[in-house]
Amino acid sequence: GQNYELPVLINYSSQVPVLPDQATLIEAFFKVHQRSYGYVDRKAPVEVMNVRLKAVLPLGQTAGNPKSPQGNAQPEVIQDVWFTAETASQTPVYRRDRLPAGTKLTGPAIITQFDATTVVPADTTLVVDDALNLILDL
Hints:
Helices cover 12% and strands 25% of the residues. It is of the alpha+beta class and 138 residues long.
């Protein structure tokens, strides 16, 4: 058979984690039904098919930044990398887990980690922030 679901937006903000009462929800559905089809059968059953929730919470206190490695960033290796078809560039390759906060590099460079590789093109600046995010300025 065919489905005749209607999305009903319930704007709800409260410090109390309780949805509006059943009568309020049904009335909201009837208003949407009236706008969509031009009539309402208030004796027909209303069935909730699904509920979607969007919650926004303040971050509050965090556990702090991850532990930053100590020392200066040193490449694991320097290798030829082809950024263009013309020529290879001698490119330092760094392990991300060994880049301390405050590290600043100018590309070309490659940053490796267990699940990703970050390419830093020539004339691009990379900075490791206090939370150990890699910030690239292109």
